[in-house]
Amino acid sequence: MAEHRTMQRAALLDAARSLLSEGGTEALTFPALAERTGLARSSVYEYFRSRAAVVEELCEVDFPVWAAEVSAAMAAVDEPSAKVEAYVRRQLALVGDRRHRAVVAISASELDAGAREKIRAAHGSLVAMIVEALAAMGHTEPRLAAMLVQGVVDAAVRRIELGAEEPDGVTEAAVGMVLRGVLG
To answer: Is the pLDDT confidence value at 182 over 90?
Structure first.
């Protein structure tokens, strides 16, 4: 029974990722989750009390995976400036990933305070990854610089999501802007 519930919960989260990446937060509804998973709508409520609860669990599951990928990219290089570059490049490379599209949709949505706090904490742990590299580069305010770097990454993500420019061009522009800004 416990294994069945775990599988159903995983199926619901996977369906939520798909809905978010395909249609944004408006698409994440309990009837849509029920339809995607073959469950009765009332059964969805047995797993999650609200849409915000689905979002919170997605954050708990997906943010650490995303952060681990960024961390691994940073660990693969030695120089602090290369770590900052890897931080930017890996996040932008993840834009096409369904988990990332779901996270972006989640971040843009109207959520309750608990879900917003989980997102803020997850983003904070992501940004904290580059503080040390920025300090090693001699930046006098590495925490502020890390937040600004993430702002460039977030803006680049939005440009890539819009599809107005080629992702590689957006990535190169973001990396150049970050490195020139941090080193300048």
So the answer is: no
